[in-house]
Design brief:
single chain; 130 residues; mainly beta; Jelly Rolls; 5-stranded antiparallel sheet; 1 helix; globular; Cupin_2; Cupin type-2 domain-containing protein; metal-binding; RmlC_Cupin_sf; GPI/OXD
């Protein structure tokens, strides 16, 4: 590992461009904090997602695990057959390959930090449920 890849990286989500899947309904946006394409990091991709009031991140699955840490707002998370209410301070572990989705049930944006054990978000192959 070279010195540049060992240097501390500090990024603010609010300073980064919003991203979205235009083909996916629900209004979810995200800002990539760390991944191979945004920074020189490897083994970890993370960012902050925002779901507007009344919006959702539709049910989907991918071959890698994912973790959410809800920062603010209120919502409902489905992982497999279980559905749970979440709000700021709630963490959710999503096992690899398990269908999951998030719905904002509150009146303000639902924001959560997400983490994948991959070099880049481009490495995450999403399959959205019909």
């Amino acid at each position: 590992m070279d010195d540049a890849s060992r240097a501390i990286l500090i990024r603010r989500a609010r300073d980064l461009a919003e991203e979205t899947f235009t083909a996916v309904p629900g209004g979810t946006t995200w800002r990539t904090l760390f991944d191979r394409s945004a920074t020189r990091t490897v083994d970890l991709a993370s960012g902050v997602a925002t779901i507007p009031a009344g919006g959702s991140w539709p049910s989907h699955h991918h071959p890698v695990a994912e973790c959410y840490d809800v920062l603010s707002g209120e919502g409902s998370v489905r992982v497999g057959q279980e559905r749970r209410q979440v709000s700021g301070g709630t963490a959710v572990m999503v096992p690899a390959g398990v269908p999951h989705g998030v719905v904002n049930t509150g009146t303000r944006p639902l924001r959560f930090f997400y983490v994948f054990p991959v070099d880049s978000l481009d490495d995450v192959e999403y399959t959205f449920e019909q």
